[in-house]
Structures are given as C-alpha cells and as structure tokens.
Amino acid sequence: MLILQTIIAVILVVMFMILTFTLIRTAANFYILLVGLLSSAWMGYSVYSGEFSSWLEIIPNGIVAGVIAGVLCAPVLPFSKFLKNK
C-alpha cells in the first residue's frame, strides 16, 4: 500500500506542476495581449478625440506608447509562448 501511495503522490506532483506551468504561460500571454490592446486603444482614442492632430504628434507618441508597452511586457516574456524556440 505504501508503494501505491508513493507512486500516486509523485504522479500528482508532476501533473500539477504541468498544470501550473500551463496556467502561468496562459496568464502571461493574456497579460501581453491586454497591454497591447490597451496601449493600441489609448492611441486610437487619443487620435480620434483630437488630442493628437498632426503626424508630428501621432508618430512620436505611438513610438513612446509601443516602447512603454514593450517594457511593461518584458518581465513576463520568459513565461509566455513568444520566446519559445522552434
């Protein structure tokens, strides 16, 4: 009976490690998606509302928004699918 309990305990540990890794990867992917959508929506709304009216305002602010979004997403990149080697 002790051997069976040990085998089941090891199987449970491995199974829940895989589940945890999958959930962390999914959460990281959703975080990157959310940051990208929010920064895009913010830029789109800013242009639509007239806050940025000329290309000389839109281009630098778009670059800054992209850099900020990238910096915000950088800590979760190791957990996401975007850095997987193929």
Mean pLDDT: 91
Major pleated sheet = none
Helix content range:
over 70%
Provide a count of the helices. Answer: 2
In percent, how much strand structure appears in the residues?
A: under 5%
Structural class: mainly alpha
Can you describe this structure?
It is a single chain. With 86 residues, the chain is mainly alpha-helical. It is 78% helix and 0% strand. The chain contains two helices and no strands. The chain has helices at 2-49, 55-73. The longest helix is centred in the first third of the chain and has 48 residues, at 2-49. The mean pLDDT is 91.
Write a concise keyword list for the protein shown above.
78% helix, mainly alpha
Secondary structure elements and their pairing?
Elements: H1 2-49, H2 55-73
Helix pairs in contact: 1-2
Brief overview:
This protein has 86 residues and is mostly helical.
